[in-house]
Amino acid sequence: MTTSFTPVISATGLYTPPDSISNEELVASFNAYADQFNAEHAAAIDAGTVEALPHSSVEFIEKASGIKARHVVSKAPILDPAIMAPRLPERANDEISILAEMGVAAARQALERAGRDAKDVDAVLCACSNLQRPYPAIAVEIQDALGIEGFGFDMNVACSSATFGIQTAADFIRAGNARSVLVVNPEICSGHLNWRDRDSHFIFGDVATAILVEEKSIAPASHWDILGTKLKTQFSNNIRNNFGFLNRTSPDTRDTKDKLFIQEGRKVFKEVVPMVAEMIGQQLDRLALAPQDLRRMWLHQANAGMNRLIATKVLGHEPTADESPTVLDTYANTSSAGSIIAFHKYSDDFKPGETGVICSFGAGYSAGTVFVRKAA
After folding, report:
1. N or C: fewer beta carbons within 10 Å in the chain?
2. Given 126, 159, 189, 359, which residue is catalytic?
3. pLDDT of 150-171, one tens digit each?
4. Is 159 a catalytic residue?
C-alpha cells in the first residue's frame, strides 16, 4: 500500500532592509557621475572617440519600468558617484553571513505565522539569484542558525529560483522525504547591478522572502493547497551575468560590463511575455481551470509593462490592481523574491476556495508557476 503525502504552503515570511533609495535620489547620483565622466573625457568626447553619457530622469525610469523606489542593504555607497556599489564590512568566518542573516529573518517570520518551531522543519532550500559564496552552502548556514536538523542546499535558477524551490520542496514531501521544508530567498541584487549603466541602474533592490512548504496533515488551518506546479527553461543570452571565480585571472576583469547584470530588454520583453502567458494557459487547461477562476495573479516583479501584458493575455482583459498587484513601485525588481513579496502582501483577503497563481520568469530563460487555493 502506497502512502500519499500532500504538500501545501503553510506560511510566508518577508524581510525588508530599512534603507530605501527613491528615483529622485538615484537620478541625482547617476547624473553627478555622468557629469563627472563627461568632464574628465571632454577632449575625447569632442574628438568623437568617446560617447558622452546622457542623464537619467525620474520620468524615464518610471516609464521604462514602473519602479519608484528600491530597498537596499548599503545605501550611502550606492549613491556616492565615486563608488556606486554596495560596500558591506567583511565578516569573520565565525559570524553569520549577511545573506544568511536576511534569510533567517524571513524564515523566522514564516515559522511564526505558521505557529511552527524551527525544530519541526526537516530541510532548508536557499533559492536565489546571487549567492554570497560558492561554499559552504548558505542554506546549511541558515539551517544551523535556526537550529534545524536534517539537510539543506543552495539552488539558483535566477528570477525563478523561488518557484523552482517550491516545486522541489513539494516533491520532497510527496516522496515522503520531508514533512516540513523552508524555501528561503535572500536577494542582494544591488551587488550584481551596474549602477553606472543608464539603461539598467534603476532595476534592482534587496530583500529576503521565505516559504514554508509542509505536508497537509500538519499544516495550519489557514494553509494554501498547491493545485499544481510547472517549470520551464529555455536557454537565452538576453539576460546574463558572467561574474564567477574563474574571472579572477585579471585585476581588471571585475570592472568589465558583462561581469555584472546585462540584458537585451526589448528581446526579453518580446520573447518572455508570450512564453509565460502560454505556460500559464497550458497549466490552467491541465488543472481544468478557466482564466476567470483566477482570483489573483502574483507575477514576478520585473517590469510593469510585462506584467500588464502577461495578465492581459491570460485573463482576456487588462488586469485591475486587485487581479495583478504590484510591489515593483516600492521594492523594484528583487529577482526570485518578487512574486513571493506580492503573494505575502496581497493574499490575506482570500476566502476559502479562491484560487490564484504565483508566477516567476527571468534569466535562463526560466519560468515557474505555482497554482494555489485557499484551504476551506
Report:
1. N
2. 159
3. 999 999 999 999 999 999 999 9
4. yes
